[in-house]
Amino acid sequence: MKDKPLILITNDDGVDAKGIKELTGCLRDLGEMIVFAPDGPRSGMSGAITSLIPVKYSLIKKETGLTVYSCNGTPVDCVKLALNDILDRKPDLIVSGINHGGNMAICVHYSGTIGAAIEGCILGVPSIGISLTSHDKNADFSECCRLGRKLARRILKEGLPDGTYLNLNVPEIQEVKGIQVCHQTSGRFVNEYMRSENASGEPVYWLTGSFRNSSPLQSGDDVLALDSGYASLVPCKIDVTDYDFMQNLNQLIKD
Amino acid sequence: MKDKPLILITNDDGVDAKGIKELTGCLRDLGEMIVFAPDGPRSGMSGAITSLIPVKYSLIKKETGLTVYSCNGTPVDCVKLALNDILDRKPDLIVSGINHGGNMAICVHYSGTIGAAIEGCILGVPSIGISLTSHDKNADFSECCRLGRKLARRILKEGLPDGTYLNLNVPEIQEVKGIQVCHQTSGRFVNEYMRSENASGEPVYWLTGSFRNSSPLQSGDDVLALDSGYASLVPCKIDVTDYDFMQNLNQLIKD
User: Does A90 touch chain B (CB under 8 A)?
Assistant: First the structure.
């Protein structure tokens, strides 16, 4: 008899966040679930790894079809440690999320949710990052769960190409119109710091800012899909080489 | 009179590392230098940003043509804070490094050195990450400086395409044969943890491991160039969308 699919769940908001609990609940009947997630918030940790101190983990809960671990590391550490030390076979799917807050456009470069999906992909497992465009601790994840579950089922059946992971973002609205396959919107954050003072009167800087797209939004931009009431699904590559520029770069460095 | 080029230097080994000092020294006559770097080691911080606590910085040194700041944040925080709060104009170049340790192949996804270069690129500045394939605190950076300086001069003159940054890795050998434009080698780390115990007898895990390429090295792989005595130069993209897979993904999620 074929084993049930093995699904690894992680996130960057911590093992107690509503998003990861909702995700675990909605995927639970699709396979054997292992939750291995940070012991607290790790938002904005990107692909960070912990090397200067050791990492450790502890078992939180074990019941039929669901085992939950908590880890003191980053989202990437969680994926690495689960695959190196916990799982007796390679998972069939890694889902990271559901993140409290969108990871569209260039947020892929900062997001711990996506960091975990990248790591899963590097380790050869079909991997998805799922985010809801709301930072509310008690956000409504129902549409996000519906679409995330649909996507997870398809990927369990069809797989993904080597070196490609998925970035799903879902708007927090009552009825999402569907999933649109998109590309990453080009842009940057502006006005990124709020200046304040610490108790000693020294200036300190809190990260804030708002996203500004580099050119008017066009069809295919993930940000436009979200603004239009769709979930955006961006396939992303581990290989970030700019192949188109290689020849010109050769000219540029010539003696 | 045209201003001298403004060059921002950062790294992930901290403002006191040999690598950043050697880099600053060898680029110094090319422009006005601002060093804005972490106050200690931030290796493996990838594109991490600090949002749960505030960041702050302090002036370390100011002399003709060179100003040095130290910051409690990540490499990305350093780039963001320098551009948002310190510099009165956009720099002409950002150089991150010289890292103590190579950032070839998939290390782009973990490296704080590269995180800073990505951030510079997002903010619209030609950006380069430079790494030496030695973790030795007292490594010999002379060949790395020679090639890094050559590259920096070219980029100051020619610029880079929007959305593309450079990843230069240099082997620590007496005479590097030159720079080869390469692509990112595909692979992963294996045997990633050394298990140990803390003082309470609990198991803890130290990150370690060795790189294994997914297929035999071929011409154009950055790892092969380094093994052959060349410096590898990989142009990398901010837009990580897998455009080739978009159509198939559309089929895959169809109802």
Answer: no
